[in-house]
Amino acid sequence: MNTFLSIFVTVISLGTIFGCLTLLIWCNKDKMGMEEGAPTGHTYDGISELNNPLPKWWSYMFIIMVVFSLIYLALYPGLGNFKGLLGWQSSNQDIRSLEESRAASAAAREEGRLVQYEREMVKADEVFGAKFRELAYEADGSSYRAIADIAQDEEATKVGQRLFLQNCAQCHGSDARGARGFPNLADADWLYGGTPEAIKATIMHGRKGAMPAWGDSLGEQGVQEVTSYVLSLSGRKVDPVEAQKGQARFAMCAACHGMDGKGNPAMGAPNLTDNIWLYGGSRAAVEDSIRHGRAGVMPAWNEILGEDKVHLLASYIYSLND
């Protein structure tokens, strides 16, 4: 907050509090020069106004609230750029990466500042961390339980589902069936493999798509021909002559998708023969993928969630394909 806004907020806040206090004091003074309880001479609809002061309980409550507000503003941030005597803040501000967040947290601890979000995260780990470990590890705590076994554990999968809804549903949907550009996790069709280990690795380390743009290399006619051939691999009706020409050009695609077009999980290259399309299966969508390429990014969750949570999350996702 710049200096002007800081001063403006401070003046408005304190001005309002002291203005209300001044009004209260003014209202508590008898300016009528009359005996308490005497009629003022103001009558409306048969009701006569009396010269009575404000109720003392109300006045005292008002003064208490004024004192409370001043103490609160002194202890906590609220007056412009003033940070408060306690050094409390809701969270570390202007954080753009995990590295910055860790550095800010370490600085806050060294300076004795109270960062509410960080304290709540530490408390949550103390309360729930043990439960995550209990569900993820073998009884003796020596190693992780097999993901396939956890997938049969109703309690563990419910925990994994909550983790999914909190962290993954924004992209993959609450039902895990994905959307355009975000894979369906419930159809047993996997770009990088659907084994428990592959699913966990994907969540832990993330994925970066690398479908290059072929528009300049193929030219517009070449894009049309390769599109026809690609569509024909999944049984779609296309111009057979155009598809034949596209097959000859498909050699540049076979390095990733294979000569048979069935893809390569090691590279995340999709199977082009199953009529399942990440970015849409219309002719226009396939042309766009070939012409401009695709570079989808799946973020890594290891440093955000930790391996215990990732292990349970992978188990839930694996359970969707049982």
UniProtKB/TrEMBL annotation:
Pfam families: Cytochrome_CBB3, FixP_N. The keyword Protease does not apply. Gene3D superfamilies: 6.10.280.130, Cytochrome c-like domain. GO terms for molecular function: electron transfer activity; heme binding; iron ion binding; oxidoreductase activity. Pathway: Energy metabolism; oxidative phosphorylation. It is found in: Cell inner membrane. It comes from the Bacteria. The chain crosses the membrane at residues 7-26, 57-76. Heme c 1 binds at C168, C171, H172, M298. Its cofactor is heme c. Residues 155-234, 241-321 form the Cytochrome c domain. InterPro entries: CcoP_N, CcoP_N_sf, Cyt_c-like_dom, Cyt_c-like_dom_sf, Cyt_C_IC, Cyt_c_oxidase_cbb3_su3, Cytochrome_c_Oxidase_Subunit. GO terms for cellular component: plasma membrane. Its main location: membrane. Heme c 2 binds at M211, C253, C256, H257. Keywords: Cell inner membrane, Cell membrane, Electron transport, Heme, Hydrogen ion transport, Ion transport, Iron, Membrane, Metal-binding, Oxidoreductase, Repeat, Respiratory chain, Transmembrane, Transmembrane helix, Transport. GO terms for biological process: oxidative phosphorylation; proton transmembrane transport. Binds 2 heme C groups per subunit. Component of the cbb3-type cytochrome c oxidase. C-type cytochrome. Part of the cbb3-type cytochrome c oxidase complex. Belongs to the CcoP / FixP family. This is Cbb3-type cytochrome c oxidase subunit. It comes from Oceanimonas doudoroffii. The lineage of its organism: Bacteria, Pseudomonadati, Pseudomonadota, Gammaproteobacteria, Aeromonadales.
